[in-house]
Amino acid sequence: MRLATFERGSMRGFGRVEGDRLVPMGHDLVEYLATGAGAEGPAIPLAEARLLAPVPRPGKVIGVGLNYRDHAAESGQPVPEEPILFPKFANSVIGPGEPIVIPPEVHEPDYEVELGVVIGRTARGVAVADAIAHVAGYTCVNDVSARDLQFRGSQWMRGKAIDTFLPCGPWLVTTDEIPDPQALSIRLLLNGREMQSSSTAQMVFGVAELVAFVSRTMTLEPGDLIATGTPPGVGFARTPPVWLRDGDEVRCEIERVGSLTNPVRAG
Ligand code: ZN
Questions:
Q1: How far apart are CA 10 and CA 40, in angstroms?
Q2: How many CB atoms lie within 10 A of CB 183?
Q3: pTM, two decimal places
Q4: In angstroms, what is the span from residue 181 Cα to ligand 1's centroid?
Q5: Rounded to an integer, what distance in angstroms lies between the CA atom of residue 61 and that of residue 165?
Q6: How far is the centre of ligand 1, averaged over its atoms, from the C-alpha of 227 (Å)?
Q7: CATH no. for 1-51
Q8: How far apart are CA 115 and CA 53, in angstroms?
Q9: Residue range(s) in the chain whose domain bears CATH number 3.90.850.10
Q10: What's CA 237's distance to the chain center, in Å?
Q11: Peptide bond into 83 cis (omega under 30)
Q12: What is the 85 CA–ligand 1 centroid distance (Å)?
């Protein structure tokens, strides 16, 4: 299933996308993931719905740093021996088509296409073999990063946790439709030009390992989001560097998941 959170007029809810239709299924996608609670309504044209981030207010957003070998190399960093985790928060989450707003304090805004993992069942100390059973599905994520702020201190939060710096969507594709999350092509286009192109097969730590690793120290709950790291081709590693600018358009594409497009605006 493709599960989308949407607005239509004064109505807000979630539903499943079937071709060019959207079948409303209830009020809150996270509640549905946790309890199965929902109420099906008559289908509406998908074009009449404004899609939001699948989980607009996740309880936790966990970023994973340097999780593609080639990206670690282009960053001049060793391939990590354990996952590198950093926080983002709900203030960063925006949906498809919503602008990424660059605050005046940020001079080096960069893009990062990533496979987003949405938790469906509470996970605490789960084994790698059981980890995917706790995942609801996958979405496209753009881990927008202010490199000037990210690299100014000893950790990354200031450059990562900025308002609007986490576009997500266009929907969540449930795990039954993606039996192998480590075999998906993933790419990013900036103003139509391909900047990142890889496969989730290149991840250092796969989805199951990440969920199990995080759950050893943090309880993962329905709606929590893990951004699983970005492949090579980011702006700061280019010569000359490429920064997001007012008027740009960023498009993230992941095979079997979908595509997510956002404009960039100066704040
Ligand atoms: Zn990232």
A1: 18
A2: 12
A3: 0.97
A4: 17
A5: 12
A6: 7
A7: 2.30.30
A8: 14
A9: 53-266
A10: 21
A11: no
A12: 10
From the CA of 93, how far away is ligand 1's center (Å)?
14
CATH topology of domain 53-266: Fumarylacetoacetate hydrolase; domain 2 (3.90.850)
- Read off the pLDDT of residues 121-166 as tens digits, 9 standing for 90 and up: 999 999 999 999 999 999 999 999 999 999 998 889 999 999 999 9
Ligand 1 geometric centre to CA of 21 (Å): 32
pLDDT tens per residue across span 74-130: 888 899 999 999 999 999 999 999 999 999 999 999 999 999 999 999 999 999 999
Write out the residue limits of the CATH 2.30.30 domain(s) in the chain: 1-51
Output the CA 23–ligand 1 centroid distance in Å.
32
Residue 51 Cα to ligand 1 midpoint, Å, equals: 23
Residue in 18, 63, 23, 228 with CA at minimum distance from that of residue 157 = 63
**Which residues crowd ion ligand 1, with CB under 5 Å?**
112, 143, 230
